[in-house]
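Researcher: Sequence recovery benchmark, item below. Answer with residues only.
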């Protein structure tokens, strides 16, 4: 028993006619009759009763039909799966830490819209044909396509007294517990921008990343200066702008120049660039 026989059986069962089934399968009636007879011999049963006009299905045929339909559908699905692999455009994107969920989702939607037949792989960290990252994480031999720019805000627990203020100054934070991320580039930039005002803050805790600093704010360890995109959708933390010089970061696509030779990445790059130019205009 093979797929060819199953398709022949399904056609005769649905058409209730050897003639109509043969036309549907684009084969001759004698060939179809032989195929059905071979299937009946393999199953050791009669599937159709030949009538003057068409055929009548037997109980065994009614029992066999849903199983045959399922087997043929599975076989067709396998063919589509492996044929599509030869026509797809593979792309691997790296996603660095400390990015907002909205920014990641926006990039993934853009990739889907920009690349027909996309076979996307998403990995964490510094990997892939290109990666979504802050500009400060760009390697020396990489190009950078900016997509977003955001100004850091002071992240506070929602119940914190300062959360009632619409804007804060560094002097408001001198008696507050402060969570820093010494390993993050923003920490040094903060000290350089605010000078002695930042140096006089009360240190409460260190966090290895901006995302971990947010978790510590949630837990009540203190306040932290964080990108607003990390706070989106967080009901327990609020962000308030700081007066004076603002700490900013740019997020975008990091990639090597030669990586644009890959059609999928070139399509994504051009799509993002066009979208950005439209926004600017």
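Model:
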């Amino acid at each position: 028993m093979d797929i060819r026989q199953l398709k022949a059986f399904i056609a005769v069962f649905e058409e209730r006619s050897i003639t109509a089934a043969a036309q549907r399968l684009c084969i001759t009636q004698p060939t179809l009759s032989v195929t059905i007879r071979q299937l009946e011999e393999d199953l050791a049963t009669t599937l159709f009763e030949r009538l003057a006009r068409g055929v009548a299905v037997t109980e065994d045929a009614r029992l066999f039909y849903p199983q045959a339909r399922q087997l043929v559908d599975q076989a067709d699905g396998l063919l589509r799966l492996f044929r599509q692999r030869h026509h797809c455009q593979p792309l691997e994107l790296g996603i660095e830490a400390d990015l907002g969920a909205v920014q990641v989702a926006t990039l993934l939607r853009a990739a889907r819209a920009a690349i027909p037949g996309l076979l996307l792989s998403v990995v964490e960290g510094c990997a892939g044909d290109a990666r979504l990252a802050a500009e400060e994480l760009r390697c020396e031999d990489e190009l950078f396509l900016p997509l977003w720019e955001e100004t850091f805000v002071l992240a506070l627990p929602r119940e914190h007294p300062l959360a009632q203020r619409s804007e804060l100054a560094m002097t408001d934070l001198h008696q507050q517990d402060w969570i820093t991320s010494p390993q993050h580039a923003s920490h040094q930039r903060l000290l350089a921008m605010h000078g002695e005002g930042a140096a006089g803050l009360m240190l409460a805790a260190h966090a290895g990343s901006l995302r971990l600093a947010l978790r510590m704010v949630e837990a009540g360890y203190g306040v932290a200066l964080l990108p607003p995109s990390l706070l989106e959708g967080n009901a327990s933390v609020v962000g308030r702008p700081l007066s004076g010089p603002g700490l900013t970061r740019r997020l975008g696509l990091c990639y090597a120049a030669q990586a644009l030779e890959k059609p999928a990445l070139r399509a994504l790059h051009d799509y993002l660039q066009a979208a950005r130019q439209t926004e600017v205009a």
